[in-house]
Amino acid sequence: MRKYLARMKGAWFGALILLLCACDHPAETRATPQNPAGETSPLVRETHSGSVQGKAQGNVLVWLGIPYGGDTSGAARWTAPVDPQPWSEVLDATTSGAVALQSGSGGVSGSENALNLDIYRPNNDAKNLPVMVYVHGGNNQTGLSEEISGVSFVERHNAIVVSVNYRLGPLGFNPLPALKTGNDAAEDSGNYALLDINKALEWVKANIEQFGGDAGNITVAGFSAGGRDVMAMLISPLFNGKFEKAISFSGGMTVADEAKSQQVFAQALAPLVVEDGVKANLEQARAWLLTPGSDVRDYLYALAGERLVALMGNASIRMSVFPHLYNDGYVIPKEGFDSANYNSVPLLMLSGEQEFSLFSRFDRYFSSAIADGSINSDENVSKQYDFVNHYGGQLYSLFNLQDSAQKMAANYHAPIYGMEILFGEDSAVVGEKMAVFGSFHGVFVPLLDTDSQNYTGLVGDAYASDGAKKLSALFQDYIYAFIASGDPNGEGLTAWAAWQPQAEENILFLDADTTTARAFMGKKAFSYESVLESIEADDSISAEQKTALLAQVMSGRWFSKALDEKYGNLSEFDR
Q1: Quick check: 196 and 145 in contact, CB under 8 A?
Q2: How far apart, in Å, do the first and last CA atoms of the chain sit?
């Protein structure tokens, strides 16, 4: 127990250091810009908490790190977000805000006090602009608002882009009983990240007119985990009326059972409890963590955030490792996406064709083959990679778009638009580097944000061709038309019909060669059932290799439940 008390003391000291360090930017400590008395500037805007000054970046005005919520460290760690503390001086919003505490390949970084957002708008006098609020990806465990910049989009379109930082990992999602106070049903949900995003949307509704935005024309958009968060918002009563349109970039439907999630969290935290001398062994620790006592609550609050976010880091699109988006019955209904009550707004869903390529290639199954290069030189190894990349890509792309639309069809009372990007498949167009990954998970990012360097190491100069640039312009024009009106169709654009279950063509496909881009309506050439049949019949690899790949690489992913049922690879969490 002495070790536990020492940890408590260290945690509070660590929290104090975080509060004072340069990576944490509470409003009252950020440098105040110099403004001559009486001088007005389009860079200075009023919010309900105080004035903020941004910067001009070419033909775009940018505000970074504006607080939309209060401090969520210390005693506020697992509480609903509140309004930020007001400030009296003009707040410097010219540098990046704090990012949420997280653990990545470079170790732990960020702050527990990071509820802030970025705003991009054209440097003109336009008002009542459509607003897109972007939720970054990263499995709800990592990432930051500047995953995308809105600069290239608003340079070409009269719109506003807002990008949000929110709590991540076990600080953003935590279903343990001891954290439930009974005072606030939303707070007791354990879905703290969703509460943050809800707070950000409320802030945008209240303040965006000061930046020239239309508070009645907001589109919430998200990529990957952010896209799944957006899909969860469509069934959440909490988000009713908070936005007028939605975009899910490579999202899909995932909900975690709250009771099973508690077991996973207890399993993950138990080693810390034993290490701190609170319980003698893992079994006792797990049982204790599942109790609602104040002693468990005090222990959890005393843990250093760095230790918490380092847990469950190997989830890699497996809900059984880091479960989140709990069906608490308040923020997310108990019935999940079987709900008959959707927040029906015009919805755009996007997928790439090879969505699984990054996850499969960098799975530990292939780690030695990546290290020695045999994944490229050894036909036996490359065939195994081709197997999981091909079928995993098909199943993941169905999960992101077709399966979700099919599930929603009966109860969704607004148009759904489906888009799939094919760009990346032809090595003669994109080069050998990108062709390895094809239209990967995130293929749209350099189209939406042409300044993005996120994937340069993987794709080289694939996006530098005239065709890719035209594809970016085409993609952005569709997105702009959608966020402006709820209908992605516009002058000069290939007609895009809303998704219909029985339609001959219900998806818009985008592709480009080195000189031109094109959009055309079509339909998936496969279904989940036909993919399973193809996997069964595939003899490009041995039966032993197939068994190993299905169990070790493809099992437990968002998209693989029916596959796992067929081959007996379901985990206890997924049953």
Answers
A1: no
A2: 37
Judged by DSSP in three states, 518 sits in strand
What is the DSSP pairing of strand 245-249 with strand 213-223?
Answer: parallel
Q: Give φ, ψ of 62 to 5 degrees.
A: -130, 135
pLDDT in tens, 121-141: 999 999 999 999 999 999 999
Runs of H (alpha helix) within 290-366:
294-302, 305-309, 357-361
Topology of domain 2-249 in CATH is Rossmann fold (3.40.50)
Helical (H) or strand (E) element with 246: strand 245-249
CA-closest candidate to residue 172, choices 146, 148, 150, 194: 194
Position 9 pLDDT exceeds 60: no
Beta bridge partners of 420: 351, 509
Query: For residue 40, what pLDDT band results from cuts at 50, 70 and 90?
Result: low
Q: Where are the domains of the chain?
A: 2-249, 346-566
Rounded to an integer, what distance in angstroms lies between the CA atom of residue 339 and that of residue 97? 37
DSSP string, 433-485: HHHTT-S-TTTTHHHH-TT--TTHHHHTTGGGSHHHHHHHHHHHHHHHHHHHH
- Largest Cα separation within the chain, whole Å, is 77
| Sequence-ordered list of residues with C-beta below 8 angstroms from that of 103, at least 6 positions apart, any chain | 141, 142, 169, 306, 309, 310, 313
Tokens of 430: 């994109």
pTM, two decimals, is 0.93
Helix (H, G, I), strand (E, B) or coil at 256: strand
pLDDT 10s digits, 370-414: 999 999 999 999 999 999 999 999 999 999 999 999 999 999 999
- Strands in 50-53's sheet, in edge-to-edge order, are 44-47, 50-53, 91-92
